[in-house]
Design goal:
Layout lengths: L1 H10 L1 H19 L17 H13 L5 E7 L6 H15 L4 E6 L4 E6 L4 E6 L8 H11 L10 E2 L4 E8 L1 H4 L4 H19 L4 E3 L1 H35 L2 H24 L11 H27 L2 H28 L7 H31 L14 H16 L1 H20 L16 H13 L3 E8 L9 H15 L10 H12 L12 H7 L15 H7 L8 E8 L4 H18 L6 E5 L1 H34 L3 H24 L6 H31 L4 H28 L7 H31 L2 H7 L17 H14 L1
Antiparallel strand pairs: 1-6, 1-7, 2-6, 3-4, 5-6, 8-9, 8-10
Helix pairs in contact: 1-11, 2-9, 2-12, 4-7, 8-9, 8-10, 8-24, 9-10, 9-12, 10-11, 10-12, 10-24, 11-12, 11-21, 11-23, 13-24, 13-25, 14-22, 14-25, 16-20, 20-21, 21-22, 21-23, 22-23, 22-25, 23-24, 23-25, 24-25
């Protein structure tokens, strides 16, 4: 088959170039439609309990993750000039398109009992105009006598004051999010400069926007770095600008195809899919290295360029196809999991890895068929003395020190078991961001003063209309709030209970000591003062909006709203279970439905779900690649032999994560799937050559192993070096997880190279000849080629002459 493929490629060069050119132009056009993802990445499947509960909450109470928090710390905040400037800042932010509401201490409302009309009059504590410091001081006394607001929009003991900015969902889920956040920070920073104050920002809109900006900038950075790394390494190996140029042209077209396919599938660029272009460059270059190494080796043998190119396709094409197929299969396993973000990554990565293979197989031989034959300096790398010495050492180790290799390998694996036992699984919202980054520093500022900014919601369905107002249910909710208040991870909770405490204080003439939950009898007096209107009623008042925020329109569902710190998946699971257990003990399950939800719960549940799905995808990748191996070698023992050298690096990497306290999280567990899919490539190349040598050398195992090491070892070293530095570039990322991913994959692939060049040959030399013959008795995928079975050169040359005459 591959002989026919070689003939088709070399005899239809112009036609193939035209077709590929048209496809590339089309993909380049599609690439212009690729958009960044500004929406919250949906990790959980739609039938997941946490996802369903969060959707249920939002249908009743609306979006809770749209608040952008601005904070300052100032013991002189209530100087009249500064306070008025804070008011101006608020007014300036309110004018921005996309800002729905702004709440700060300036917006504190007070309830005044109106006996005549039997209602509460809602008035602003701070009027639009404050004429003197004395007036401000007197108003401040009133404001601080209202416990409802304490530790919610200000922390009096720490002199910290917040401005809570509610943003439009439509703006947040579009590219307008970045200019909106930038405009807010620009106005706030100006206020900080004018008043000599440090401004702190947080909240999910801000965190997500800053992460999106970093992802967008790093996408371009990694593509540039990937190109530079590959250019430098390719030139240092081949000493040929032509090799460098055409190899980089191949992967550049692959990147265009990848971006274009992303638009065709209507996928948006996320942190994960943003890694695909540089990954394709790094993964695609080894195809060119194997093809060009074989081309140079063949040309060195007989000096015939066309024969060398033909043999490149029909000898190496099959092995390269298998290596790309296994790598693509490793990524394709992500398609089988239930996470949309992983499916998108798996689809684009797997399709375009195969696409880059076809580009290399078609374009490298075609390009070099038009170019002059390689000069002696271009093929000098095949006789590099340093590389030859390394191959000699590898041959010596496999032939003479197999027992030592097995002992060392077993010892390393035993030590690795200890490291694996130390591994921990966790995930934080901002743990991948450097701890000196403003996003991280400001988050810790808010956690220190308000215990967190991540929404955590508890909804209690009383199953009866108006039952949320019943005194017994309010007392139960108050009991649960007092329990939560003892946990330092949570901010002050706010619910209908606090609204009724506020109403009681107002009913009894505003005395702070009356801020308590009213008794059943008192509640009968107070309720007539509390009027409600539907959320969409245009005449709704601020007081009625406040009430609507914590109970549904039927008066059936209570809401407890609070914030939680970025405590990690482990602690978050514990807290959720503790609160749910306490809530169930207060609100019996036969009479109430209690749900713990909110963006924080969904995020941490999604992180755990993602880790589990990645682990499943790794298992599926191993099974799938084992299937390919069994298809190649009709022997279970050979399947084990081919898998062992690739499992060893994964075990060692897992141990390093345990010893160096690198937790398992979505960004780091991705290491195993990527590294395994790529490291198997070396095994396939080695065994492909080993099979050829077995037939050529009349089943002489020792000679076949030696020849396989000497010929494929060079290409394996070259590609491993490219992959090492290629993935090493991710260390330049601003995300700790991406840095760890790059470093760990680089280490894993280098270990895999030595494992395939030391452990694999040793295992092959230890296997009986009878097993080898059974394993290779058929020709399923890896074929043995007749050295003389080539394209007829005269026929090819005649076609070339006729073509040029026609043109």
């Amino acid at each position: 088959m591959w002989t026919k493929v070689a003939r088709i490629i070399l005899r239809n060069r112009i036609l193939i170039l035209i077709i590929l050119g048209l496809i590339t132009v089309f993909m380049a056009y599609q690439m212009t439609f690729v958009k960044m993802s500004y929406e919250y990445t949906k990790i959980l499947p739609e039938d997941d309990t946490s996802y369903v509960e969060h959707l249920y909450f939002k249908n009743i109470f609306g979006e809770e993750a749209n608040v952008f928090a601005v904070g300052i710390e100032d013991e002189n905040f209530f100087q009249i000039e500064k306070f008025n400037n804070w008011k101006k800042l608020k007014k300036g932010i309110e004018k921005l398109d996309g800002v729905e509401d702004v709440v700060s201490i300036y917006d504190i409302l007070n309830l005044i009992k109106n006996k005549e009309e039997k209602k509460f009059d809602v008035i602003s504590v701070f009027p639009d105009t404050i004429n003197s410091q004395k007036e401000l001081d007197s108003l401040l006394v009133i404001a601080k006598s209202l416990p409802f607001y304490s530790n919610a929009i200000y922390n009096d003991t720490a002199n910290v004051y917040l401005m809570m900015i509610s943003l439009s969902k439509e703006k947040l889920n579009s590219k307008a999010r970045i200019p909106l956040i930038d405009n807010i920070t620009k106005i706030a920073d100006k206020f900080g400069e004018e008043n000599n104050l440090d401004i702190h920002y947080s909240g999910l809109p801000y965190i997500r926007t800053e992460i999106t900006k970093i992802v967008k900038s790093e996408l371009n950075l990694f593509i540039i770095l990937a190109f530079l790394v590959c250019i430098i390494i390719l030139y240092s190996f081949f000493r040929s600008f032509k090799v460098v140029f055409f190899s980089m042209l191949v992967v550049s077209i692959g990147v265009i195809w990848a971006m274009g396919s992303m638009a065709l599938f209507d996928f948006k660029m996320s942190m994960l899919t943003g890694m695909i272009p540089p990954l394709l460059i790094v993964i695609g270059i080894p195809n060119s290295i194997f093809l060009l190494n074989k081309y140079h080796a063949e040309y060195k043998k007989h000096g015939n360029k066309i024969k060398a190119l033909q043999r490149v396709i029909h000898k190496v094409g099959n092995a390269i196809f298998l290596t790309n197929l296994t790598t693509a299969s490793g990524f394709a396993t992500f398609i089988l999991v239930s996470s949309d973000v992983l499916k998108e990554f798996g689809i684009i990565a797997s399709i375009n890895i195969i696409g880059v293979f076809f580009l290399a197989l078609l374009l490298i031989p075609i390009f070099f068929s038009f170019l002059p034959p390689p000069k002696s300096r271009h093929i000098r790398h095949l006789d590099n003395k340093f590389v030859v010495k390394i191959m000699d050492v590898l041959v010596m180790l496999s032939n003479n020190y197999r027992k030592a290799i097995y002992i060392i390998t077993i010892t390393v694996l035993v030590i690795s078991a200890v490291g694996i036992a130390l591994m921990k699984s966790t995930g934080y919202m901002v743990d991948d961001i450097p701890h000196d980054d403003r996003v991280y520093v400001d988050l810790k500022f808010f956690e220190k003063n308000f215990n967190g900014v991540m929404p955590f919601e508890i909804i209690i369905n009383t199953k009866k209309k108006k039952a949320a107002y019943k005194n017994k249910n309010l007392k139960k909710a108050d009991k649960l709030q007092k329990y939560i208040a003892k946990k330092p991870e949570f901010s002050k909770s706010i619910s209908l209970v606090d609204a009724f405490k506020f109403a009681r204080q107002a009913y009894f003439n505003g005395k702070q000591s009356n801020y308590k939950l009213p008794s059943k009898q008192e509640q009968n007096f107070i309720l007539p003062y509390v009027s409600r209107k539907k959320r969409k009623d245009p005449t709704i008042t601020k007081e009625q909006k406040l009430l609507n925020a914590y109970v549904d329109t039927n008066g059936q569902i209570l809401r407890l709203s609070l914030m939680v710190a970025d405590v990690g998946t482990v602690r978050m699971s514990e807290l959720t279970e503790e609160i749910k257990a306490k809530a169930d003990s207060i609100f019996p399950a036969d009479k109430y439905d209690v749900m713990c939800t909110g963006t924080s719960v969904v995020f941490f549940k999604g992180t755990k779900y993602l880790i589990r799905n990645l682990a499943i995808s790794l298992f599926l990748a191993i099974i799938l690649i084992a299937f390919f191996m069994s298809w190649m070698f009709y022997s279970f023992r050979m399947v084990l032999v081919s898998l062992i050298p690739n499992l060893i690096p994964l075990i060692i990497t897992a141990a390093l994560m345990g010893f160096f306290k690198i937790p398992i999280k979505p960004s780091t567990i991705l290491v195993f799937s990527i590294a395994f899919g790529i490291s198997v490539d070396d095994t396939i190349h080695f065994l492909a050559k080993y099979r050829q040598e077995l037939i050529s050398n009349n089943w002489d195992i020792k000679m076949s192993v030696v020849n396989a090491i000497r010929e494929t070892g060079i290409s394996m070293m070259y590609t491993s070096i490219v992959l090492f530095f290629g993935f090493g570039m991710f260390v330049a990322s601003n995300f700790g997880g991406t840095q760890a991913l790059g470093l760990l994959v680089s280490i894993t692939l280098i270990v895999a190279m030595f494992s395939n060049l030391v452990v694999l040959p040793s295992l092959l030399l230890s296997i009986e000849q009878s097993t080898i013959k059974r394993a290779f008795r058929k020709e399923p995928l890896i074929q043995i080629f007749d050295e003389e079975e080539d394209i007829e050169l005269d026929e090819l040359e005649i076609k070339e002459i006729n073509h040029f005459k026609q043109t």
